[in-house]
Amino acid sequence: MCITFIRTFTTRINLFIAHNNMAIRQSSDMAKFKETLKAAKEVVILSGAGISAESGIPTFRGAGGFWRKYQASSLATPEAFRHSPSLVWEFYHYRREVAAKAQPNQGHKAIADYESRLGSEKKITVITQNVDGLHIRAGTKNLIELHGNLYKTRCTKCKEVLVNNDSPICEALAGRGAPDAKVVGSDIPVKSLPHCKKTNCGGLLRPHIVWFGENLDPAVLDKAETAMATCDVCLVVGTSSVVYPAAMFAPQAATRGAIVAEFNLEPTPATPDFHYYFEGPCGTTLPKALAD
């Protein structure tokens, strides 16, 4: 844990120094960016909550990030699951149902279409911080999900990870999870929650999500870092650039010479590090940027 902290702190110091030295002036020249993108051999698209917010997915970050009376981030922890797995599962059942009703927007579709058209000519990698599965439903193939997926479960006993699209995931959660601030706690017995179906296991299942206080899967992180280390162009799409380690990816790429373009509703702390900045909804700006 100490090594991880030192590594992150050192990287942030180096990026701060690099930023002061680079003094990049952001451009909003779409035609020029498209020429740069056309010439690229390896492209990474890094997406965050902003692109899914346009499909109606709550971000659960900031002052408005509440479910019932709980700060949503307080439920996305191993400690919360140990204390009240029923309450945490109600919260994630709600999130699963919201995401299931949402549809990929024009931003998701533009990314998937870009990969479909040019994936045989370029190495195109989509790295997402989102867990809603909308990139997959839009048709993206080469996808790295940094923080897991709402529609995957992990057994707390045998550690098996499985895709699960059941609605509800178990009968006890049917009709539960509404964000009613008057509801406190959960009375669902633990034995009625999702459990592993393997004969010799039967362990309690949890959402396959990277919770606060947990590290990213090393294999997933390594795959993402490898893609970022070799890309010519990186598109930063709808991310606040404050969640680590993903917040370091694009600034590091810019520091080593990759061209980075940010697509967002408003500037972020990392915007000064990037070459291009396109303001507006991703569903509007991305189709323009990724079209032929």
UniProtKB/TrEMBL annotation:
Chain sites annotated for binding substrate: 92, 95
PROSITE patterns: SIRTUIN (PS50305)
Active-site residue numbers: 147
Cofactor: Zn(2+)
Pfam families in UniProt: SIR2
Enzymatic class: transferase
Residues annotated for Zn(2+) binding in this entry: 155, 158, 196, 201
Function, in words: NAD-dependent lysine demalonylase, desuccinylase and deglutarylase that specifically removes malonyl, succinyl and glutaryl groups on target proteins. Has weak NAD-dependent protein deacetylase activity; however this activity may not be physiologically relevant in vivo.
Record remark on domains: In contrast to class I sirtuins, class III sirtuins have only weak deacetylase activity. Difference in substrate specificity is probably due to a larger hydrophobic pocket with 2 residues (Tyr-92 and Arg-95) that bind to malonylated and succinylated substrates and define the specificity.
Protein known as: NAD-dependent protein deacylase
Native source species: Papilio xuthus (Asian swallowtail butterfly)
